[in-house]
What we know:
This protein is of the alpha+beta class.
Amino acid sequence: MKTKILAELRRATGYVSGQALCEEFNVSRTAIWKAINTLKKEGYEIEAVQNKGYRLVRVPEILSQKELESIRATKWLATEYHYYESIDSTNTVAKKLAEEGAPHGTVVVAGTQTGGKGRRGRVWETPAGTSISMTYVLKPDMMPGNASMLTLVMAMAVVRAIESLTQLHPKIKWPNDIVMNGKKICGILTEMSAQMDYINHIVVGTGINVLNESFPQELEEKATSIYLESGEAVQRAQLIEAINEQFEHYYEQFMETQDMSRLDKEYNTLLVNLGGQVRVEGGKEPYVGNSRGISERGELIVDTWEARRLVSSGEVSVRGVYGYV
């Protein structure tokens, strides 16, 4: 009931009477009063005025199941949330939930992630109270070969969400990083369970540095946060909701063609290395070329002195990012 009351207070433009809440939720005034007091103890600033009712004055920086559910405005994404104060990996939990029948659009969120995964087995840890660790469970009707492009769709959603809440303009480092001023602010990891021609489920995990005020010495030249770049203390729950809304929008466009043909032009405007030099590793021999954006299949187009190449996997280093000069 607290979640429903909180959502009702958020929707209201002024005061909400206690009687109206009683009638809405079919409970006593005492039950409403107790719920309001519990919300106050959790940090929500709620004003109570006789003959007027209750008004939500201020929302704290709090990440919880109740907070996330009370601000949800998406159509199908996040209709089911699974929030954990601390887990090893949201991707691991999301895959288990998917196998157990969790519906398309389920979202797993963790306050702290102790064993998060990045690409190529790297670790992505999220200190308590600073970052976002979340994973989507998706069960699309499409061929497995199209799944990797959802990483690009997620990257667009994260960039646009950050722009909507701050004055920042992050860029995408193809295929799965969001960067600012040459440093990483977000990483994305997409994993899939599939048959030859059928997807069981896809999980899209995202880790974002939001409120971090500092990083360990070994990371301070490569990592940054929204707070360090903007000086703004963005609320993590608000950012998650903004990302959800953006992802839902871009995902629906993606699914119409099941490729990036409707999104590639916008994606390229967000690409940090568009027109710049990149170094591609992971094949037989590393090579250097100039990035020309992405193809309709989400591949990175790289022009070398020999020929144009389409990069579908491998490590891509961008001049001026993560120390590459």
